[in-house]
Design goal:
The complex is a heterodimer of chains A (about 325) and B (about 775).
Chain A (H helix, E strand, L loop, with lengths): L1 H28 L4 H6 L5 H11 L5 H13 L13 H37 L1 H16 L2 H15 L15 H35 L2 H8 L4 H38 L5 H11 L2 H29 L1 H4 L2
Chain B lengths: L7 H5 L3 H4 L4 H10 L1 H18 L1 H4 L31 H37 L1 H15 L3 H12 L3 H28 L2 H8 L4 H37 L10 H10 L9 H25 L2 H25 L4 H9 L1 H4 L10 H15 L1 H37 L3 H7 L4 H6 L5 H21 L3 H10 L9 H6 L28 E12 L2 E12 L3 E6 L5 H9 L7 E9 L2 E2 L16 E4 L13 H13 L3 H14 L5 H6 L7 H13 L5 E5 L7 H18 L2 E6 L2 H7 L2 E6 L2 E7 H6 L4 H11 L6 H13 L1
Parallel strand pairs in B: 3-8, 3-9, 6-7, 7-8
Antiparallel strand pairs in B: 1-2, 1-4, 4-5, 9-10
The chains are: A mainly alpha (about 325), B alpha/beta (about 775).
């Protein structure tokens, strides 16, 4: 198990490295003249050249990359070319926003898909069809469209929840909760649809197993057979899907943050990408990929805990 | 599609691999019969057509803005109104659809073009490329696509098609994995081995055998990817990325978002277009799954292919003549008639081996499978079941050959008739057996858990009632000659006297049916405290169904009625012991057939052992643990502490069965219902487990219902025997009486094929077992 986790951790580190390198190269290889953008349209050629030198853009790409990498490993991601803030400080401001909605969405997906999936598998009939229908709808509606619809009705029309903005937890836990409900739900709808379907399938399979019948023959409570034994055996399949869905969740945050006017990592990614703000974008990419790696690693741990063959064997 | 379709001629050429692939016209025809598919295809076609014909449908330019029309309501000149800067919504919707659909088609095509060849190579040749490609695929799959697209668009420039091309690359790993998985699976198939051994080139094997298998999943995934592509693309354009020069559904949503406070209706059309397109692609993928690989269509076809080959195998065996034919026929109908080798008495073993030869002679995949099936049958035989089941095989074969009456009445004449009767009609017999049995067997054989599951089916085949099994068992096997026999009511039968008074379990007129098929048809029985009742019969006779009905553990689709069901004086409902009363698990316990599949793989053995005791006896954790360790010791496990802490996959089958017995007796039940508790075990372990059950039963004075097809087990342990045939008890008697004086022709036939008209016990185990082993 430890060996397995170590390998996953290593491949996670490799992933962060490869993607950040790719991003860096892409940013530098392309034609957009960032120095000109920053210096402004009225700047003279000399001024632009000076800016270029200041940012180190006149040096070979390899040297620039090496500088970035050695600094990044020490935790120094430089300063944003546009705002002048350190990347670390502007990201630490933004990270809680994104973490709240993304982890909120993950939690919601996990709980809702288990409940719906189990119910559909056990009850069948109308409920089952409902879950199947939800799967199609959830697949067909992009998260930002769900976000738009929710924002329109729940926030704008009915005024039940705030349409935009984020309240930090430390300021007011209840306002914080209100401010992340809609974004989290928007993100989760697709993941719920996919995962509930998976839970349903896995539960149907498991419930057909001989050992479930044997457990029932022992007069154990229905709840114990369903949620302790059957669900535990169905969980690995669901976790795998949830891990994949989380990647989509992180991506979806970029769009959903825009709808709800949240200044999180996603909106930072958007502005940094359109400005060509290399240091900030690099920081964003590293943070997002790390988030994906960490959550998937946690899901791996959960997987090992659930499946004795991975853990012991 | 860019994929080569399989040569239709190949399907008829009898190559088993290609025979599985539905032909193109048939796919289309089947697809057109599926209402979902038709609706989805129509929607997609309609949207595509409308976008293609945009200039005909609207005279407006999607880019010309006219500030007077900003946020204009629907009108004659603007059927859907104007957007935030006064552009015509309808024309933007139609022209935008072009961008969205073409971009997504590009992404899908790129994903397929990259994914399929790499997947083929990685799956077929494996080696270093497989490792590398798998690693890269994992890497790419863990990138949040939209982030990378942001980077690309932010730096390379705003081009929708570029973005979608990159997205195609990002989706390629999904296709790669799918193809690689399918190729890997088909590579293990025997017919691919056969093709390789017979010297076909890799290219030919890939074209003939591998591509056809890969094709269906790729088409399905392409449909899904198309939907996902639309989502991602509209997401990007919603963010304001992608080319601003061109209209698209995503950019329309962006505009609508900007005007959400003033004119939210703008969300409707692009939202609807996106949702419809994506839903139609997704549902189309589902429908394709049903048509191409899913249950109803392709599966039976596959079974048929295999089954036919098997029938050929047994046909060949049949022509080799004589009693061997019976063996061959049995082997064709393997699943239930396992070990029919033994059935034809002395010639049994040769019959079995001959059928193997025949199967191989027929060549091809199905035949190879048949050979494997015969092996399985023989191995079951080796476990000492050959005698009884063999007899059953003979009966069934006879019945289906249309000479049921004769065989039934002539049953008392012994094995000769049973073996001879079907010889002439082997072909037909095999046919009957084939659809239900071999299909089933082949199907299970494809599962990961092939062996153990298969054995269960082969030995018994009635744990999970399979619709095809029952008719086969029902229709032919109830010969008219037997019908008048006192089947229903045990009362009038001479032996049936279950003494009134101290019954533990009383069942009267139990009926179980699935749809219109009755599997238990008016069974009545009684068990007293300390008494062991053997429930004997061929596979499909309903004995396990009877046991599960009493336990209340039948699947929900079973319809159960019962005249009376009482346990220890308590009346139970038709839903059996499970319906509360604190009886199930506490006073009635169950020992299953297949030890390994009856322990929950995710929990330690100790946990599973302790659970019922804590619930029913209210023991503390420590007390329960102490008692569990003592129980493990009692059932003959040498190192209780180790097994207590072990997971099911860490112990042997015999040990697992001891654990299951320990759990069953842990709450001191009054009645034990054991469903073929030794069938799945090795011969030596069988005897030990049977000994253990007998001693536990004596020691605790438990009543016991022992479901078995093994008269050896009956003679060993049972006080009374009830013989079941096609859902009825045809004879019920004290064990000794039954062996000494079987009354019912069916019982006689079962016994005769086993005993060869000698005294009850002596020769019962030894010769038959050794026959099975020889075979």
């Amino acid at each position: 198990m430890m060996k397995f986790l170590a390998r996953r951790l290593l491949s996670g580190v490799v992933l962060v490295f490869v993607i950040s390198s790719m991003t860096f190269v892409l940013m530098r290889m392309t034609g957009t003249d960032v120095a000109r953008n920053i210096a402004g349209a009225t700047a003279t050629t000399q001024q632009v050249a000076a800016k270029k030198a200041e940012l180190g853009l006149d040096r070979p790409v390899v040297v620039q990359y090496w500088d970035w990498l050695t600094a990044a490993v020490r935790g120094d991601f430089g300063r944003s070319w546009f705002s002048g803030d350190t990347v670390i400080s502007s990201l630490t401001d933004k990270l809680p926003v994104t973490l709240s909605i993304v982890l909120g969405g993950l939690l919601l997906s996990a709980v809702a898909s288990v409940l719906l999936g189990v119910a559909a598998a056990v009850r069948g009939g109308l409920l089952d069809r409902g879950v199947q229908l939800l799967a199609v709808i959830g697949f067909a509606l992009p998260s930002f469209l769900v976000a738009l619809i929710l924002a329109l009705f729940v926030a704008v029309k009915w005024g039940w929840l705030p349409a935009t903005g984020y309240t930090p937890f430390a300021v007011s836990p209840s306002s914080w909760f209100e401010s992340i409900i809609l974004p989290s739900v928007s993100l989760a709808v697709g993941a719920i649809a996919a995962t509930a379907q998976q839970v349903r399938g896995a539960m149907v399979d498991v419930l057909r197993k001989d050992y479930i019948r044997t457990l029932r023959s022992r007069g154990l409570s229905r709840r114990s057979v369903l949620f302790k034994h059957a669900l535990r055996n169905a969980a690995p399949a669901a976790l795998t899907v949830l891990g994949l869905q989380f990647i989509g969740l992180v991506g979806g945050a970029v769009v959903v943050e825009k709808v709800f006017g949240l200044t999180g990592i996603g909106s930072a990614a958007n502005t940094a990408a359109s400005n060509g703000d290399s240091p900030l974008l690099m920081g964003v990419v590293v943070v997002m990929v790390t988030l994906v790696v960490v959550v998937n690693l946690l899901l791996d741990v959960a997987q090992g805990w659930l499946n004795p063959k991975v853990r012991v064997g | 599609m860019t994929l080569p379709m399989p040569d239709p001629a190949a399907a008829t050429a009898g190559e088993p691999g290609t025979a599985l692939v539905p032909r193109r016209d048939r796919i289309l025809r089947r697809l057109l019969k599926d209402p979902t598919a038709v609706v989805c295809l129509s929607i997609l076609a309609l949207i595509a057509l409308a976008c293609a014909a945009a200039p005909l449908l609207t005279s407006h330019d999607p880019h010309t803005s006219n500030l007077a029309d900003a946020l204009a309501p629907p009108s004659g000149s603007h059927p859907l109104g104007g957007d935030g800067v006064g552009r015509d919504v309808l024309s933007r919707l139609l022209y935008g659809g072009r961008t969205s659909l073409l971009g997504t088609a590009l992404a899908t095509a790129i994903a397929v073009v990259i994914g399929v060849p790499t997947g083929l190579v990685a799956g077929y040749f494996r080696g270093w490329f497989d490792g590398l490609a798998g690693w890269v695929a994992n890497l790419v799959m863990s990138i949040p696509a939209i982030i990378l697209l942001l980077v690309v668009l932010g730096t390379v420039g705003q081009s929708t098609y570029l973005a979608m091309a990159v997205f195609g690359v990002l989706m390629a790993p999904g296709v790669f994995r799918l193809v690689r998985g399918s190729v890997n699976a088909v590579r293990e198939e025997l017919y691919v081995d056969a093709a390789r051994v017979s010297g076909l080139s890799d290219a030919r094997i890939i074209r003939r055998h591998v591509l056809p298998v890969v094709q269906a999943p790729v088409i399905i995934q392409a449909a899904q990817l198309f939907g996902i592509g639309i989502l991602i693309q509209s997401g990007l354009e919603f963010l304001g990325l992608g080319s601003t020069a061109e209209a698209s559904w995503g950019s329309m949503l962006n505009d609508a978002f900007g005007n959400i406070y003033t004119k939210e209706q703008l969300l409707l059309w692009p939202g609807l277009a996106i949702a419809l397109t994506v839903a139609a692609s997704g549902l189309l993928a589902n429908a394709l799954t049903d048509v191409l690989v899913g249950g109803s269509a392709a599966r039976p076809k596959r079974r048929r292919g295999v089954a036919t080959a098997t029938a050929v195998g047994s046909g060949v065996a049949g022509t080799t003549g004589g009693a061997g034919a019976a063996g061959g026929a049995g082997a064709a109908g393997v699943a239930k008639t396992a070990g029919s080798s033994g059935s034809s008495g002395s010639s049994g073993s040769s019959g079995s081996s001959r059928s193997t030869e025949g199967a191989e002679g027929a060549g091809g995949a199905g035949a190879a499978r048949a050979a494997r099936t015969v092996e399985a049958a023989v191995s079951t035989g080796a476990e000492g079941t050959a005698r009884t089941v063999g007899a059953v095989g003979t009966t069934r074969a006879t019945g289906s050959a249309g000479v049921a009456g004769t065989a039934g009445t002539a049953g008392s004449e012994g094995p000769a008739t049973g073996a001879d009767a079907p010889a002439g009609d082997t072909g037909e017999t095999a046919d009957t057996g084939e659809a239900a049995d071999t299909g089933e067997a082949a199907d299970t054989g494809e599962d990961e858990s092939a062996r153990p599951r298969f054995r269960e089916d082969a030995a018994q085949g009635e744990g999970q009632p399979q619709p095809p099994l029952t008719p086969a068992a029902d229709a032919p096997a109830l010969p008219p000659a037997l019908a008048p026999a006192p089947a229903d009511a045990p009362a009038p039968a001479p032996h049936s006297g279950a003494p009134v008074g101290d019954e533990l379990l009383v069942v009267r007129d139990l009926r179980v049916s699935y749809g219109s098929t009755a599997v238990v048809d008016g069974v009545s029985l009684a068990v007293r405290r300390g008494e062991v009742l053997g429930l004997v019969g061929e596979s499909g006779s309903g004995k396990s169904q009877t046991a599960f009905a009493v336990l209340g553990l039948l699947p929900p689709e079973a319809q159960v009625t019962v005249g009376a069901l009482s346990f220890g004086g308590t009346e139970l409902s038709a839903s059996g012991a499970e319906a509360g009363h604190g009886i199930l698990g506490r006073r009635i316990a169950y020992v299953p057939q297949e030890p390994m599949s009856n322990l929950d793989p995710s929990f330690r053995i100790g946990t599973q052992l302790v659970e019922p005791m804590r619930r029913h006896l209210g023991l503390s954790r420590a007390e329960a643990r102490k008692k569990a360790l003592a129980l493990l010791d009692r059932v003959g496990i040498a190192d209780p502490a180790r097994v207590y802490a072990a997971y099911p996959h860490q112990v042997s089958g015999g040990m697992a069965q001891r654990v299951l017995i320990a759990v069953a007796v842990s709450c001191d039940p009054d009645l034990l219902i054991a469903d073929e508790p030794t069938t799945a075990l090795d011969v030596t372990v069988q005897a030990e487990v049977l000994d253990l059950m007998r001693s536990l039963q004596k020691e605790r004075d438990m009543g016991m219902v022992l479901v078995t097809h093994d008269f050896g087990v009956v003679a060993d342990i049972c006080d009374r025997v009830a013989v079941m045939q096609t859902g009825r008890i045809v004879e019920s008697a004290p064990a000794a009486d039954l062996f000494a004086d079987p009354r019912h022709p069916y019982t006689r036939m079962l016994l005769a094929s086993t005993l060869e008209d000698s005294e009850p016990r002596g020769p019962l185990t030894a010769p038959a077992v050794s026959e099975g082993v020889d075979a």
